[in-house]
Every structure is written in C-alpha cells, then in structure tokens.
Amino acid sequence: MTELRKSLAQPVFASFLAGGVAGAISRTVVSPLERLKILFQVQGAGREEYKLSVGKGLIKMWKEEGWRGFMRGNGTNCVRIVPYSAVQFGSYNFYKRFFEDTPGQDLHKNPLRRLVCGGLAGITSVTFTYPLDICRTRLSIQSASFSTLSPTQRQQLPGMWRTMINMYKHEGGWYALYRGIIPTISGVAPYVGLNFMVYEMARTFVTPAGEKNPGTVGKLCAGAISGGVAQTCTYPFDVLRRRFQINTMSGMGYQYNGIWQAVMMIIRQEGFRGLYKGIVPNLLKVAPSMASSWASFEICRDLIMVAGNAE
Predict the structure, then answer these.
(1) CA–CA separation, 147 and 154 (whole Å)
(2) CB 16 within 8 A of CB 89
(3) What is the pLDDT of residue 77?
(4) Cα distances (angstroms) measured from residue 8 to each of 2, 125, 139
(5) CB 24, CB 89: distance < 8 Å
(6) Which residues contact 60 (CB under 8 A, 6 or more apart)?
(7) Which helix (H) or strand (E) is 144 found in, with range?
(8) Which of 42, 53, 234, 261 is most buried, by CB atoms within 10 Å?
(9) CA dihedral 278, 284, 287, 292 (to 10 degrees)
C-alpha cells in the first residue's frame, strides 16, 4: 500500500489518471456540439443537409434521432479520450523532465519549451489512440440524414468494434485504421503545443498575487482561452482530418489522393471558408470543453497526489 501511495504521488502518474478523468468529463459535456461540428466538416460542395445554423442543426438532430443523436459516438469518444488525455497529460509531464534546468522546475518562463513538450505529447497521444478516433468519426455520421446514405445504411449501425473490424477487413488492414493520421498529426502537434503554452501563460495572469495556483474560476478561464486560441489556429487541419477519415465511404461526394490535392479541391469547390466548416459549433464547445478539462484535470491530479502523500 505504501508503494502504491508513492506511485500516486508521482506527478507523471497522477497526471496520467487525472487526464483520463478530465477527458471523459469534457467530451461528454460538449457531445452535441462535437457531433454537429463533425457533420458540418464532412459536407462537401453542393451538400445542403446540414447547411444550417448551430441552433437549427441541433434541433434537426433532436427531431430525427432524439437524445441518442446528441450522444452518437460519445461512448467511443470517451473510450478514446480517456487513454488519449491520460497519455497526453502524462507524456507532457514526462517530456518536461528533459527540458527542465533543475528537477521540478516550472517552464512558465519558457514558452518555446512548453510548445515543444506539448507538441510531442500530442503526437504521442494521437499515435496510441488514432483507430478509435477514426471509428468515432464514422459512428458520428452514419446515422445522420445525408440523402446519399440509404435508410438501410443508417439503420444498420454496426457499433464501435464492428466498425473497426469492417474497416480492417474491407479497407486495407491497419492502414485503414490510420487513414488521415498525417494531417491529424500536422494539426494536433501545434494544437496541443499551443494549448499547453497558452494555458500556462494565461494561468499566470489569473493567479492571485502571492498564490502559487489560481482558483477554480481562474483555471476555467485559462482553459477556455488556451482552447480557443489553439483551435482557431489549427482548425483547417481538423477539417482535413475528418475528410480523410471518411474518404473511402461511398456517398460523401469526394475522394482525395493527398493532403495538398484535398486543400486545393476544398478551396476550389467550397472556397476558403470550406477549411473552416464547423468552426462556430467548435468555438462554442471549446470554451466549456477545455475549461472543464483543465479544471477537472488539476482538481483530480491534486486529489490523487494528496491521497498519495497521505500518511
């Protein structure tokens, strides 16, 4: 028991557990907006089914699928996000060790080091959990009322494991489960790096004078700011990621051969705005998502470390 408590008191281990809890909480809070964002993102040129405002899109989802529509794919997302967030937060604290001048040093005075540590953490977490991410995207759209998807396709929903097995068997083996990982990493590395960097910077501004840590409200504000900045700067990569994840699905109206060709086709057919499809529900969700993520992460981590240090 003593050894377990010592392990819990280690920052990397505590961050790993707290990151998993934070990920599940934050994704569930914003599940309806997350799914709506994906439906906006995957619409190619000439598609009108979800060419709606955020409010009307949510109403359409509710009328057609009920509350299950709001949560469609969230189970898979939580299965993915728990290890994703755990690996991300844990690996960030692991990589920090290599950039500290002295053990336990705070990197708040060196934004570039935080950016690099965050980027490495993002790449690590994506690589471990990417098959679940592509599966979550497929589950999010397969029950949506796209006119080119037949009612039979929408009714025969295979579920998470069946979706992954079908992709593996019929779309190219392991390659199918990692389709789109290049644009994903291209966006995730700077996104996570910016997220950690901006959060640590914002955290210093909301910490009361003489205090080491900000209060819960301060953590919520810092998380919302960091998420908004990071998402806006890297959003086109997220659109490319979703498009490539469903690139082999029939009835979606596009087939891309590479990242550059996809960018050019989107701009030519949908305009520059095509690279920012779904940005509105994304920004609406990013504040509560990142705020709840960072706040629950720090609270859980502190509780775990306190329990680990308890006599």
Answers:
(1) 11
(2) yes
(3) 75
(4) 10, 21, 36
(5) no
(6) 50, 52, 145
(7) none
(8) 42
(9) -100
Alpha-carbon span 205 to 192, nearest angstrom: 20
Shortest CA distance to 120 belongs to which of 88, 98, 97? 88
**Cα torsion angle, 273, 276, 282, 287, sign:** negative
CA distance 218 to 216: 5
Confidence of residue 147 (pLDDT cuts 50, 70, 90): very low
Mean pLDDT of the chain: 79
Residue in 174, 159, 230 with CA at minimum distance from that of residue 201: 230
The H-or-E segment that residue 197 falls in is helix 181-206
Single out the residue of 228, 234, 236 nearest to residue 274, CA to CA.
Answer: 236
Q: Is 197 exposed, middle or buried (0-12, 13-18, 19+ CB in 10 A)?
A: buried
- Please tell me whether residue 174 adopts helix, strand or coil conformation: helix
From the list 130, 157, 163, the residue with the least C-alpha distance to 144 is 157
Find out whether 74 and 140 touch, Cβ atoms under 8 Å: no
Return the sign of the alpha-carbon dihedral for residues 281, 74, 167, 186.
Answer: positive
| Whole-angstrom distance, CA of residue 106 vs CA of residue 99 | 10
Rg of the chain over CA atoms, in angstroms? 20
Give the list of residues 6+ apart from residue 219 with CB closer than 8 angstroms, or none: 203, 206, 291, 294, 295, 298
Question: Smallest Cα–Cα separation from 139: which of 76, 201, 181?
Answer: 76
| Degrees, nearest 5: CA angle 273-278-284 | 125
pLDDT digits (tens, 9 = 90+) for 196-248: 788 888 888 888 887 877 887 887 788 888 888 888 888 998 899 888 888 77
pTM of the prediction?
Answer: 0.67
Q: Pick from 197, 206, 269, 266: which is nearest to 235 by CA?
A: 266
Distance of CA 199 to the CA centre of its chain: 16
Question: What whole-number distance in Å separates Cα of residue 173 and Cα of residue 169?
Answer: 6
**Six token digits for residue 271:** 């305009």
